[in-house]
């Protein structure tokens, strides 16, 4: 069965370069949804540096990937954010990015990645998770609803000069 062919790994410094092709796919997908997500020409180098210098060094952030042999086929990035003490729920998990290569979709890989990140959130006493979704990304919205997530907030934006 396919499920036995891939493993979920924690991303470390040496793995970041192998994530770049997936991040590019993710970025192109979102840039096609809305030009607000358009990225710079040197995005790959900037993103790798950000991952190595900011994300992987932060104990409140985690990246997991699905891997077949030596190829990464999907990944998820999450972080723990502390809200102001005026709220009862002060520690929340944010899923910033989740992406699975198109060839490997509909095989429950994304669900397995979410479950792995949820284990980490639970270990860190997080009880609530949020994930921003582009308003016109209906496949993503449907995926999250199947996992029990619900819409609770709408973001709006404008450009000023």
What does this protein structure show overall?
This protein is of the alpha+beta class. It contains four helices and five strands, in the order βααβββαβα. It has helices at about 15-35, 45-55, 110-125, 140-145, and strands at about 5-10, 60-70, 70-80, 90-100, 130. The chain is globular and about 45 Å long. The protein starts with 6 loop residues before the first strand and ends in a 15-residue tail after the last helix. The mean pLDDT is about 90.
Number of domains: 1
CATH level 1 name: Alpha Beta
Identify the CATH architecture. Answer: 3-Layer(aba) Sandwich
As a percent range, the share of helical residues equals: 25-40%
Helix and strand pattern:
EHHEEEHEH
Gap between N and C termini, in Å?
55 Å
Strands of the widest sheet, in order across it, are 1-2-3-4-5
Average pLDDT works out at 88
Which strand-content bin applies to the residues? 15-25%
Oligomer: single chain
Shape by Cα distribution: globular
- Please give the radius of gyration in angstroms: 16 Å
Count of DSSP strands: 5
Largest sheet: 5 strands, mixed
Low-confidence segments: none
Question: Under CATH, the topology is which?
Answer: Aminopeptidase
What structural category arises from helix and sheet content?
alpha+beta
Tally the helices: 4
What is the CATH homologous superfamily assignment? Answer: Gcn5-related N-acetyltransferase (GNAT)
